[in-house]
Amino acid sequence: MHHHHHGQTDPQAASSPRIRVARCRCDVITSNNRPCLLRAPSPRVLQLAHSRLRARSGSFTTAASPDRLTDATASDSTLCTPARPTAQHHNVFTPQVLSWEEVEIGEPNEGEIRIKNKAIGVNYVDIYYRTGLHRAPLPFIPGKEAVGVVSAVGPGVTSFKVGDVVGYADNPMGSYAEEQIIPASVAIPIPPAIDYKTAASVLLKGMTAYVLVRQAFKVQRGHTVLVHAAAGGVGSLLCQWANALGATVIGTVSTEEKAAQATQDGCQHVIVYTKEDFVTRVAEITSGEGVHVVYDAVGKDTFQGSLACLMPRGCMISYGQSSGSRPDPVRLSDLAPKSLILGRPGLMHYTTNRDELLQAASEVFDGITAGVLQVHANHVYLLSEAARAHKDLEARRTSGSIVLVPDSQSL
């Protein structure tokens, strides 16, 4: 095992395990089908296996003509840094670009572990990467969270052993895979009381909710809180958490069915914003006072309305933009009339070291074991059906969390 950990494994080596992944190809594929090696967190995480690209045949049209593509080279940037748009990025980003393929997985290097994934969390951020709102070098494997069993540990790793149940959230990207290699430093031990699907439903979303209600803005008893997309994966947890902290929670949803879910999650007031104007309703509910904080992951469709709902010195927390971000709606002058505060927190800046990471995770696990947080793992798909999961999430057909399960396991 050990002789691999210095360089890359020889693709021809019989000993190299092969795994299946859902990979974003967009409308170009590598011209020779040698799979690329899955490594993390080296900077060439998912570079193109070969620099010469050709347009994919079939239903996709390329934005650049095929001859423009021949000399496009793989971007060397890491997953965290957005790649500069190049000829590799096209304007066709339907869920069908997720192709199901076999790749090689090597051995974990120094400080790394390999995980056999049991449940993989789907997050709206995966769609941002697939559509190019967030840039990643093509082709890449999406996915920002998974839970599984350690199948190999690299040299120098003492905190984990083969067989341990661990999860991770946020970085490195690449969880839409049967197995993956991650730095041991980002792995979170999963308590035995919490099953794979629950853990994969709640790690990224739950830690995000923790940051939003306990860190970026500290929700307290007596606060009035407005949560958009209250039945979504993060929204559902935000409502439950804010309610447990003693706040009055107002949630907005798009359907009556989701309204029932939001009520169950602790919203004292639910607004079906497709039927009524949420700004008017919030004013009525709060007798014109407004709310202390708005949690908004919808973006431009709700932005101005969210500001209108805030009381003076209120705080607008933006944590996503499912309705789009172009044009970016922020004008500083919009904040002045009520001395508003605007924040755009991201989980990674609140989990900058292992202590912060484990603290955030334990708050989430404690909430689940105490019964304060109910996890709605409402939608389970096979990993090979990742494209269908994306389609349903974008079409607003889902509520709560979405989990992918590798095809080698039973649902």
Describe this structure in words.
This protein has 411 residues and is of the alpha/beta class. The protein has two domains: 222 residues, Medium-chain alcohol dehydrogenases, catalytic domain (Quinone Oxidoreductase, Chain A, domain 1); 145 residues, NAD(P)-binding Rossmann-like Domain (Rossmann fold, 3-Layer(aba) Sandwich). It is built from nine helices and 18 strands. The strands form four sheets. Strands 6, 7, 8, 9, 10, 17 and 18 form a seven-stranded mixed beta sheet that branches. It has a six-stranded parallel beta sheet with strand order 13-12-11-14-15-16, with helices on both faces. The longest helix is centred in the middle third of the chain and has 21 residues. It is globular and about 65 Å long. The chain starts with 17 loop residues before the first strand and ends in a 6-residue tail after the last strand.
